[in-house]
Amino acid sequence: MPDDSKILCISGPNLQLLGKREPAIYGSETLASIHRRMVDRAGQLGARIEARQSNHEGEIVTWICDALGEFDGLVLNPGAYSHTSYAIHDAIKAVGLPCVEVHLSHIDGREKFRRQSHVAPACVGRVSGFGAESYMLGLDGIVGYLRAHEPRG
Ligand code: DQA
User: Fold this and answer.
1) Which of 44, 48, 101, 107 could bond 126 through an S-S bridge, CB–CB 3.0 to 4.6 Å?
2) Residue of the nearest CA to atom 2 in ligand 1?
């Protein structure tokens, strides 16, 4: 792992409402609070993180494409775009950056339409079902992945 791996965390549509949105499913912590905790956790891991949210598929695609050369890895909660977006899948493949897919809820245990993620095949792993901790575990996962795949020499 480069000494200060730089991670980009992207959250998709409706996740700006975390804390208010169906708290029985998504918990009571706000996205801003999750982002603050990720910054702290990244510091403990010797990494840096930038966290963003967008309700627009094209903006998420642009952020992923622009991450090439700026970031070492991605933590991505595509929200409902997980189940619909080939464009986000293709963007991750296009840049070749390792990406961990995260979901607050256990998508495999919910409605049928949530059980398929079109983004998953472009990712190196997925954390799902641990509420806000899914983001922290996703961060641990991507930093560990980068460390394990550090070029040797
Ligand atoms: C979600 C799961 C998706 O199915 C849903 O559309 C979301 C949130 C999650 O974090 O559990 O918006 O990605």
Assistant:
1) 101
2) 79
Pocket around ligand 1: residues whose beta carbon is below 6 Å from it?
14, 77, 79-80, 82, 103-105, 107, 114
pLDDT of residue 100: 99
Model confidence at 2, pLDDT cuts 50, 70, 90, reads very low
- Active site includes 89? no
149 catalytic? Reply is no
Q: Do residues 85 and 119 lie in contact, with contact meaning Cβ atoms separated by under 8 Å?
A: yes
Domains for the chain: give ranges and CATH numbers.
5-148 (3.40.50.9100)
pLDDT band at 150 (very low <50, low <70, confident <90, very high): confident
Calculate the CA 135 to chain-centre distance.
7
What token pair was written down for 84? 């619909």
**Residue holding tokens 């460390």?**
147
